[in-house]
Amino acid sequence: MPEADLRISHWLEQLAPISLDEMSGIKLMNRTDTKFVTSKQKLAELLELAQGKYYAQQINGQRIANYRTTYWDTPAHLFYLEHHNGRQPRQKIRIRTYMDSDDSFLEVKTKNNHGRTKKKRISVPSQERQDAIDAGGTRFIQGLTGQTFDTIIPTVQNQFQRITLVNFGKTERLTIDFNVRFHNYETEMDAVTGDLVIIELKRDGNVYSPILELLRKVRIKPHGFSKYCIGSAMTNWQLKNNNFKFKMITLSKLTGHRFRVPQEQIIS
After folding, report:
1. CATH at residue 121
2. What total of structural domains would you count in the chain?
3. Could you tell me the pTM of the whole model?
């Protein structure tokens, strides 16, 4: 195991555990999100500084959870282009599976003009289209987005691992995603993200956040990142992606992993 992974595991195990039941009051379905991107090396430093300030979510003795998410979009990539072009409000449709428990949810995420993210979801049996329809998925997404399963298609799937931290005051949740990999259903292309770490601070409004000081200490700065959009740009070179070009160059410098699509494929 690489040294950075060993250090992450070591410092993660030193944090006090918190169960799902104990976290039930901090779902933060209507929240403000702040994202940060960094490397595994920096994450190990952050976890060391978080000792005595944060809990680590633990489920069945495990502190690293496994996720699979399939994003759905129109054939014209409406949701991708809304994000790429900076439109607000904007939405995304996805089915997320918590792989350790095999629970799946059809979700609609909406980001409004005030920077708040609202997520609504229903339980579905699996990621299969017909299972989602049978569980009432068509009515659910149509009521929120105007789309149906006749107007959208699965575009990109990702898999990743997640650490979830909760501050001792239980006013915020910090999700830390890594080992992200993508598969594109339209192009059949795959992509990986090297040592990239995506940190998301989720809190109800601008309440005090102890993690912000720790992030500054290890020089981890706010940096937007959409798994759907970056995964799409990395695996479908026909998509408009000029607004993500600088972001991909920055990610490459942070992690030493190439995120850029070939120059000749960038559409202006």
Report:
1. 2.40.320.10
2. 1
3. 0.91
Pairing mode, strands 16-18 and 54-57: parallel
Q: Write down the mean pLDDT value for the chain.
A: 91
CB-based contact 108:140 (threshold 8 Å) = yes
Q: State the CB neighbour count (10 A cutoff) for residue 224.
A: 14
Q: Tens digit of pLDDT for each residue in 193-207? A: 999 999 999 887 667
* CA separation for the pair 85, 71 (Å, rounded): 18
List CB contacts of 52: < 8 A, sequence separation 6 or more.
none
Torsion of CA 36, 39, 43, 46, to 10 degrees: -60
Residue linked to tokens 């595994």:
40
The dihedral through the CA atoms of 227, 198, 202, 59 has a sign that is positive
Residue with tokens 């109800």: 204
CB neighbours (10 Å) of residue 100? 13
- Note down the domain range covering 120: 3-265
